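quick one, two chains, predict together pls
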Amino acid sequence: MSENRKFFVYGLFVLVGIIYLIRLLYLQVLDNTYETASNSIRAIPDVPMRGQVYDRYGNLIVYNTLVYDLYVTPNKLKVADTLALCNALSITRADFDSLMKAAKVYSRKKPSLFLRQLSKEDFAHIQDVLVDYPGFEYVKSSVRTYSAPTLAHALGYVSEVSQKQLDAQEYPYYRQGDLMGQSGLEKFYEEYLRGQRGVRYVMQDVNGVAKGPWKGGELDTIAHAGQNLYTSIDLEIQQYVDSLMQGKAGAVVAIEPSSGEVLAITSAPSYDPALFATRDFSKNYAKLALNPYRPLLNRAVMGSYRPGSTFKTVQALVAMQEGAISPGSIFSHAGAPMKCHGHGGLTGVSSAIQWSCNPYFYHVFRRMLYANAEKNPFKASAIGLQKWHDYTQKFGFGQKLGIDLPSEAKGILPDVEYYDKRLGKKSWRFGQIYSMSIGEGDLLITPLKLANLAATIANRGWYISPHLVKGIGKNDNPLPEFKQRHETGVDRRYFEPVVDGMEMAVVRGTVSRGAIIPDIVMCGKTGTSQNKKGKDHSIFIAFAPKDNPKIAIAVFVENAGFGGFAAAPVASLVIEKYIKRHVDRKAYEQEWKNKNFLQNVIIPKSQLPKPKEQKPAPTKPEATIVNREKAAFNKLTEAP
Amino acid sequence: MARNEHITQNIDWLTVLIYAACVTMGLFNVYAAVYNPEEQTKLFDLSNNAGRQLMFIGSAGFLIIAILVIDHKFWEAFAPIIYGFCIFLLLAVLVIGSDINGSKSWIKIGSFSLQPAEFAKLGTALMISKFITQPSVNLTKFRDLLLTAGIILLPMLLIILSKETGCALVFASFMVVLYREGIPGIYPSILLIAITLFILSLFFSPLYISLGLVVLAVIIFRFVLPRYDRNQKTIINLSVIFGAMMLFSASVDFLIKNVLQPHHRKRIEVLIDPKADPMGKGWNVIQSKIAIGSGRLWGKGFLDGTQTKFNFVPEQHTDFIFCTIGEEHGFVGSAAVVLLILGLMCRLIFLAERQRTRFARAYGYCVAGILFFHFLVNIGMTIGLMVVIGIPLPFFSYGGSSMWAFTILLFIFLKLDAQRPFTLSRT
């Protein structure tokens, strides 16, 4: 029976063998398409233009400029007069030799990059001369160009794909020398921006002269241009924020509360994004990486700070929702280990926010942790903290908000597990963690999260994840996750006393008088973030107008001291500018533009700051022929 | 009966000859693939891949001697232990494996890397042969089938986890031995129908396939089946079978569009349309076809290939070694290689059939099956008839693990065959 099955197995083997032999006969003897193709077809990638980036009013922020990359194939090169060629290319003889040597090391038969990113004007000059020098060819390429020197962190940059990235790609799209978004929007929306590369197959003779398409272009594919990004950024406000943050380290994030759209996002100190779009990329990057103020760090989404008193708004909201306090609750200062700044009599939550009363919030937090049936203070603290954590978490703390920028920091919102690990199970209680009541201690947040808090309060209870892109290509919608409302679970009625308190804080409270905006009701909360090194960071969150808010903002100014002092004026000016489109307080504006707090920033002594940003191409400088070429080119541009 | 005096006594010299021919041709083609006319690449130089391949072949010689010395009963007796050790290695590689080309399937020992997946085929072949030829095991019983499937699927799963899907697919080749050893014909039929439907689903939409199946069912019912079978029961049976087939083709469509990872999907798309990924996998296929096609009848001559130099075809010396053969030795050379491997496979079946123990016969079928799968996929992909799956061409492709694994696989069988006159049992 199954003995006969061996014939099927023989049959299967022989059948496949015969099919393959027939196929080989066809490929190798009968069909001569492949012979004519041999040695003479070349695939020419058609690199599409990268998508452009617009602001919320349709102004261009990022676009492309046509440049030319010059390639050389050493074996085909015939140079009668090297000196004349060098003059035409405006390089020296030594540079020519070193570039040519690098090209020969790479390959004598394949073209290698000789000069990168020649401008249209330079190229027009060279083009006529090149006809006399076979072996040179050019490829059209493009560089990112910026309409204004702003938004460097949010936009990110594009650079040559690194060997590591080439190896890591799941499905091999990128090839050596391709450009790739490395940070910011350029990275996050890379797949939309880059478009779809096309390929043309052309036949060429031994000298590399094109002889027309192969197989009549049957196998060619068309390149599809990248999709444009329509951002929610208000370019005018963005630049205004930049001007206010001169001479300061910190971050500003402004959001439209109703949509979660980011209006402006600045990390200071910043840099001109165009620095990374030139062939001096490596040099410029290295220079910025060594800058002690860490301009490469995107403080808005990566900087971790303590929220300080701005967090009292959250404490009040959560406590009321939990039922630990009511809007009219009053606490005496007695028993609290923190001092109060001095103020009139408190009448409840709103006046506590208005005066940012530390002892009040000490008692609020204490009550939240201990307001349960458990008698043992250790166990009670654990139960209380977990409940508090679960409420607070819904404001987006201790997790990524999911903004459309890479490398957003999570921050820290301690829960029971966190303290069990740090202090040991059942060996901690309220007394050890009370500083969180006023936003100090182990809490860590990013400026983005605080801006989102301001937007949540402005909305009285919900937020949409902040995002910068509101439309991609022909699609007028942001990504689906940016249409979703996140509820905090705190009732709308509990927001009113907090909002009132924030209004009073500006009118007659912790905020300096100058920050009051004529004709606009701004609600704000100051914060003073303690840090081990140097002066406190100044923080301010705000939204305006009080009813139907148009803008919510968080301002961080590092080492500038008390929150109402430095951050509030910046926020108030930005709000005024956004709502009125002009600023009436000219002198005040000038004063804050000129203020410099950078000298307060403590720079770590021995160690040079290392930016936590992802390490891009320049970490492997000698890896590619292109980098070698680049290095050589940088050297020669520096030469006198 | 007297023990064999010499270890090479009774060995099947024809197979050894074919093996030697394959390995030698492989070596020279690896040399041609890495040969750089500007540098005068030397064959006896460990710094290039040809030199290393030569070293792999030399060490394979020691393995052959070792296998011929070891008592033939060892393999059957220790099959479970060898299988267990392979599973252990596959687990280990998931933990300590180093990343090469995105898959975590290599164990690095000094400057050499070992790929346990290659040896897992060997372990599984031994284990399967031992298990299914036990007198108590009956391949028509569901419980035994389940255990058999388990033996095959366990290493397969572990290999998939280390992201070597191509290598895992090789385990499908055990269907050949199961078929020979009496698995009900329905299982290979299902496999064949599934593969056919799968390929059809790539080219046609599920709707057309369903229509075609309905027509086929009607034809079978109306014209093929005898009149007395055309009753309600048959209608129900037919609709269940054809319904399942339609469901399968629809789910293939869904699988490809929604479940497969992008790089797998791309490989399948490229088979249908090389334009789908012109600079990546499609380029491989186009370049590979150009290289082979440009060889014409007699080839361009040894070391005179132009397409297969300078990395026109990626993985030139490993998975795409057949391109070098096709380009430099033309149809004559490539047909010779096809015939050589075909001859080897048929010879193995012939040898397997003359074994006196079921274990030896089953093992012979395992070896032939594995060789066949590699032959089918590797050569098929270079001539554009198969999906690009990165598995080597046995004895030809560069690589120590595959060279050793295939040598051991083959010579264990030759050793078993050589002992045939001294074994009596035939169960």
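Strands of chain B lie at 98-100, 103-109, 112-114.
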